[in-house]
Amino acid sequence: MSEAPAGMKIMVSIGGFGPAGSEPVTLMAFKSNALGTMTVLSRITYRECPDEGFAFVTNLRLKTFDCLFKEEHLADAITGYKEGEGMGTILLADDVSKYRPRIEVDGVDTQGQKYRLHSDIGNAEVAVLALAHFMSRQRGIESLTQMSDDIARLYQITSI
Predict the structure, then answer these.
(1) Does residue 42 contact residue 3 with C-beta atoms inside 8 Å?
(2) 40-91: per-residue pLDDT in tens?
(3) Which fold, 7-153?
(4) d(CA 116, CA 99)
């Protein structure tokens, strides 16, 4: 059985949101395996490719990425963000707390709460949502990996 890494360094670059002429942004985050948290750490100079050792999330059709965040992922990203915010698993450092997504509750129906994004949501706010979506996807992958390891352990043959 291999030792799980301490966490994952993530960069997210998002463009195309906010008022006309808004510059794309890049945020850095860290996902802690031990704590089950993701902390958005800082805004850095815009990147079109990740630094060495970072997972890369983007909504732009760039040369390289680990996760392509599309508009169709927004609903799941909002739900993931609201859940993470409520459980304390998505954290924003003081320097980036101004990028907390402005999400309004827009009623409830038979499928649960409905949310609406502020009409002038910016690239940095969407970047936080893209990170929440990525974190949700990673939980699914980690669960599958754990289940695979558990099944492998069940079928280990021990001889004396």
Answers:
(1) no
(2) 999 999 999 999 999 999 999 898 999 999 999 999 999 999 999 999 999 9
(3) Nucleotidyltransferase; domain 5 (3.30.420)
(4) 16
